[in-house]
Amino acid sequence: MLPQHSATEQSTNLYSEFITDEVVTREEVLKKISQEEIFFLLCGYIPVEFQRVVSPLREDHNPGCWFEYYLDTLYFKDFAFEPTSMDCFTMAKIKFSLSSYYEAVQLINNLTKGKTIRLEAIKAIKRFRKPKKNLTRIFFEPRYFSSQDLEFWGNYNITRQQLIDDKVFAIKKYSVGTNSLHTEVVNGLCYAYTNFKSNKVKLYFPQRIEKRFITNCTANDIGYITKNKAQNTLIITKSYKDARVLCNAGFCVIWLQNEGMIPSVITELVEPYHKVIILFDNDQRGIIASSRLESILKKELVTVNWRIPLEYTVKDSAEFVQMYGEEKLKILLSHVVND
User: Fold this and answer.
1) Where are the extended beta strands (E) located within 116-195?
2) To bridge 60 with a disulfide, which of 55, 111, 216, 273 should be the other Cys (CB 3.0-4.6 Å)?
3) pTM > 0.70
């Protein structure tokens, strides 16, 4: 594996130790070591095309990234970064805080000098781009809301009737595929968000640490919550739970599939409003993604990239309501909306 350092160490120790005056090209490096092998060194796992993985560039517990070949180049897709598609040298540049692509080429060249790194398995698992498939269907068997469900949602002042109105179902069994046999029995809490077009579904497993979502939704499947039409300001957030607590506080809100999945129709969605507030998580991914969305929307209308103040020690709107209450959130956000 490559040496691991903090961001400060990356920009000093790695630079001085492995980046030299030697002239070397990308093509020369790739004659000695394949791009798949470089990704293996950077990520710690073998790249398999289209397999969902966590990002090695940030703290990430939910596999939402993947590898994809385009022509003869393998790219890593991570929507928390710009560019969202990166080859192995671009990933090295980001991972080690280098100032240029060429420095990344030099770094990889010197780190792998004299080493024999053969991953024959990579050649066997490489997959070529496949034709676009039909929509993968998600089927589920709903159940009645239990006292445990109502306690979970009640932590955020979300009621049973609001869940019904928003087409949220408690799930007993589910299956992913082309038939309706419910083969997976749910252990613990699971909910289906279904208020999308074309029979799209997003399953939410709140008690899991990893793989908390299963979905066939795309970036353009927007989550809508009943809007307060008197508002001229729209809040864009990243989950149903956050959107519902914001709606309960009296705000106009829509929610995206996640921070990194920006809909291609986003400018059309915000057109009726005078102002947009972006409210994502207070973590690295949320900060990067909100800045990216802001750069798109500020060309169209007044855009505020806002985060809950760090003094509250919460990561999102739902957690804020859980700890401080709905009225406090309303007061805090009203200053931003009316500013």
Assistant:
1) 137-143, 168-177, 184-185, 191-193
2) 55
3) no
pLDDT (0 to 100) of residue 5 = 41
How many whole angstroms separate alpha carbon 68 and alpha carbon 9?
A: 31
The residues, ordered by sequence, that sit 6+ positions from 288 with a Cβ below 8 Å of its Cβ are 80, 81, 82
| Residues 19, 16: Cα–Cα separation, whole Å | 6
Query: Other CB atoms closer than 10 Å to residue 51's CB: what's the count?
Result: 14
Q: Which two tokens stand for residue 198?
A: 């074309």
Q: Kindly report which listed range (24-28, 65-69, 211-215, 320-324) carries the lowest average pLDDT score.
A: 24-28
Q: What is the mean pLDDT of residues 69-90?
A: 85
What is the per-residue pLDDT for 142? Answer: 92
Those residues with Cβ within 8 angstroms of residue 148's Cβ, 6 or more apart along the chain or in another chain:
189
DSSP string, 36-84: HHHHHHHHSS---BT--B--TTS---S--BEEEEETTEEEEE-TTSSSS
Q: Which of 158, 17, 30 is nearest to 89 (CA)?
A: 30
Cβ within 8 Å of residue 186, ≥6 positions away? 171, 172, 173, 174, 205
CA nearest neighbour of 218 among 293, 135, 128: 135
> How much is the pLDDT for 180?
56
Which region, left, alpha or beta, applies to residue 304 given φ > 0 means left and ψ of -120 to 50 means alpha?
beta
Strand partners, 233: 275
Q: Which residue has the tokens 């970064």?
A: 81
Whether the pLDDT of residue 127 is over 50: the answer is: no
pLDDT in tens, 15-63: 445 455 566 788 888 888 888 888 988 888 888 888 888 899 888 888 8
For residue 163, give every residue at least 6 positions away whose Cβ sits within 8 Å of its Cβ, in sequence order, or none: 145, 153
Distance from C-alpha of 104 to C-alpha of 164, rounded to nearest angstrom: 52
Dist. CA 109–CA 105, nearest whole Å: 6
Both tokens assigned to 37: 């092998």
